[in-house]
Amino acid sequence: MEPRFNLLANDLGAKIAKRIYNVALAIVDSPLPQATQNLVMLRASQINGCGFCVDYHTKDATAAGEDQTRLHLVAAWHESTVFTDAERAALALTEEGTRIADTRQPVSEQTWNRVREHYDDAQIAALVSLIAMINANNRLNVIVRNPGGAYQPGQFADMAN
Predict the structure, then answer these.
(1) Is residue 132 part of a domain?
(2) pTM above 0.90, yes or no
(3) How many domains are there within the chain?
(4) Which residues belong to any copy of the Carboxymuconolactone decarboxylase-like domain (predicted)?
């Protein structure tokens, strides 16, 4: 499978990608736990069917030391015992925030209240921004058909600044 279009080979596409990457760096540097960030990015990418991002975030999480059992169970987190209550709240917000067109009230008060129980304001700012950004990245990659399988951890490190 070949991509329809290489965003990074285009001057404007590369400029936009670099800015998106720098937003991602601000989130990485936030007080939201890295393990939670990895789980959120993987779950949204699974929902959106983004093979490139599933590959990317699974490999980055593995490189960061994430347990393989947890990665294998992200898609079935509702029926799994390996996630903390805080991670479960973040995954619930991820699912509801990703599937916003599926219901009149995309993010339930129950989910929001669970998030508020486990995260402070800075962490919530990072979590909400992360959900928005991974959904944007998923859409970019799905639209241009970037395939999964070839990502190497750290391959975009030179995009910073």
Answers:
(1) yes
(2) yes
(3) 1
(4) 17-96
